[in-house]
Design brief:
Layout lengths: L10 H4 L5 E7 L16 H7 L4 E7 L4 H11 L7 E4 L16 H4 L15 E3 L5 H4 L3 H13 L12 E3 L3 H12 L3 E8 L6 E7 L4 E5 L8 H12 L4 E4 L2 H10 L7 E4 H8 L7 H8 L15 H24 L7 H11 L2 H10 L5 H5 L1
Parallel strand pairs: 1-2, 1-3, 3-4, 5-8, 6-9, 9-10
Antiparallel strand pairs: 6-7, 7-8
Length: 366
């Protein structure tokens, strides 16, 4: 199914928007041996998708930042660029990126460059050839450009804050704080052991509380589990991203979350069934300043791992609010209908997952 492009901004609204100067860092060569053209062939298609208030130039990116800004400013007629869009993966080294993240992971991230004098973001995007070969690519290009060209209405979450819960006092503080929340976002990280949980994070709208369940720093897994059971029974509406996965593990610890009403992965599916639905992509799609973080838990440092767990719930919570706001337009009727139809199936699906299937292995191998 082909996705429709974002509707054009009315002329009356464009008149109120200032001109935005954007430099696209393109791959001029491609991979001729593999029959892959460079980006130059696709520039007309990219230009046709840009809003009227965008002044864009397309330049082969140099290897260092110092050569880049003067080149872009010259091509923009002396205007300083408001943003750089990187369509060539090998130029991603111009900006700091998370541990081992790939260029495809980074697409849509709102990155700040190494150079302190740069006052504009870098936003990695897919190669321009995708505008012809990937159905959602034109829409995504328009959406990412709109973050710079027309940021009004984009959801901007508050600063991220988290606490690693390892003491009785912190457990009591977490219970009290979560008890006052109307929404809670939950996420688990697995330990690699069958149905084993390494940590659970709960975000209450202000603080992401992370509960180690692997005995980190001498924490008692039983007392931590009892604390989580208390929070799980609080009346706040619970939000998950692909909650069926988390619920299977939580239920094995007898942590039963009441009022699980929302799932951001399912909401993403209800908006755009064909599009990616992983948490990293969904954050870059909905949150204005989103930066890819999903590889932070792979550094080998336990604090990095727990902070990564916290970022998952912080992101899930604010993705949910952004999905409801829908850039100021509200939740569309078709999304509501889809969600009502699909969410009620989560519970029989979860029950099937917990029960499993009785398989006759002899017959299966015949």
């Amino acid at each position: 199914m082909k996705l429709s492009p974002i509707p054009a901004t009315p002329a009356s609204s464009l008149a109120a928007l200032r001109t935005i100067n954007i430099a696209f860092l393109i791959d001029p060569v491609g991979k001729p041996a593999l029959g892959i053209e460079g980006d130059r062939s696709y520039i007309p298609r990219a230009k046709a998708l840009l809003p009227a208030n965008v002044n864009a130039v397309f330049i082969p990116a140099p290897s260092v930042w110092g050569d880049l800004r003067p080149a872009a400013t010259k091509l923009l007629g002396g205007a300083k660029p408001d943003a750089f869009f990187i369509s060539c993966p090998r130029y991603i080294n111009l900006v700091p990126k998370p541990f081992s993240a790939s260029s495809s992971d980074m697409q849509g991230s709102y990155l700040q460059p190494y150079s302190p004098e740069a006052a504009c973001p870098f936003i990695p995007i897919a190669p321009l050839s995708h505008l012809f070969s990937v159905p959602e690519a034109p829409m995504l290009l328009q959406r990412y450009v709109a973050r710079v060209a027309n940021p009004t209405g984009w959801y901007k979450p508050p600063a991220f804050d988290w606490t690693l819960v390892t003491t009785p006092e912190q457990r009591e503080a977490a219970i009290a704080a979560c008890a006052t929340a109307s929404l809670q976002a939950w996420d688990i990280e697995t330990s690699g052991i069958e149905l084993g949980i390494a940590s659970v994070s709960v975000y209450d709208g202000k603080m992401a509380w992370v509960f180690p369940l692997d005995g980190f720093n001498g924490t008692d897994p039983l007392l931590t589990t009892l604390c989580l059971r208390t929070i799980a029974q609080q009346p706040a509406a619970k939000i998950f991203h692909n909650g069926i996965f988390d619920q299977q593990y939580l239920l094995s610890y007898s942590i039963v979350t009441t009022n699980w009403l929302w799932d951001t992965m399912l909401l993403q599916y209800c908006y755009y069934a064909e599009m990616q639905k992983d948490l990293g992509f969904t954050a870059s799609f909905w949150l204005h300043d989103a930066v890819y973080w999903k590889d932070e838990g792979k550094t080998g440092n336990r604090i990095d791992f727990f902070r990564y767990n916290a970022r998952d719930t912080w992101s899930t919570y604010h993705i949910f609010l952004a999905q409801l706001a829908n850039n100021g337009k509200g939740l569309p009727g078709y999304v509501k209908t889809n969600y009502i139809l699909k969410f009620k199936m989560m519970f029989p699906w979860l029950a099937c997952n917990m029960e499993g299937l009785l398989v006759d292995e002899v017959a299966r191998l015949d």
